[in-house]
Amino acid sequence: MEKKTPLLDEIGRKHGMKVPEDYFADFTEKMVDSLPEREIPLPEQPTLWLRVRPWVYMAAMFAGVWLMMKMFTGIFSVEKGETPQVEMTASAPEESTVEDEWIAHYVDDYTAYEMLYTEGDY
Questions:
Q1: Secondary structure of 25-92 in the HEC alphabet?
Q2: What local confidence, expressed as pLDDT, does residue 72 receive?
Q3: pLDDT of residue 51
Q4: Sign (positive/negative) of CA torsion 71, 76, 77, 83?
Q5: How far apart, in whole angstroms, are the C-alpha atoms of residue 53 and residue 95?
Q6: Are 78 and 84 in contact (CB under 8 A)?
Q7: What residues have CB less than 8 Å from 83, skipping those under 6 apart?
Q8: 46-61: b or e for each residue (b if 16 or more CB lie within 10 Å)?
Q9: pTM of structure
């Protein structure tokens, strides 16, 4: 069953646009003739650096991540109670002794209070 549309019946199927005869028969030849000639460059051979560069970047990234983890685990290990390795620097005051440094890094407040309290007894 066909539907009848009054608009299509009024306009009709001819819309006035049509392709000339044999237009697509030699279309490819006309298009090739109208394009300018251009030289296609040969692809360049990649250098050694261009081939190795991604691997070097990846190794540098992993080294950076490893160093960051080493630094952060070193900081967090001091909080867990492990003994940190303290280095003496040239900027330390001359009157500080190794005992003062040891007390500053390894003795908590309660132990320091006990040490002060027991020193006065004898």
A1: CCHHHHHHHHCCCCCCCCCCCCCHHHHHHHHHHHHHHHHHHHHHHHHHHHHHHHHCCCCCCCCCCCCC
A2: 83
A3: 95
A4: positive
A5: 53
A6: yes
A7: 106
A8: eeeeeeeeeeeeeeee
A9: 0.33
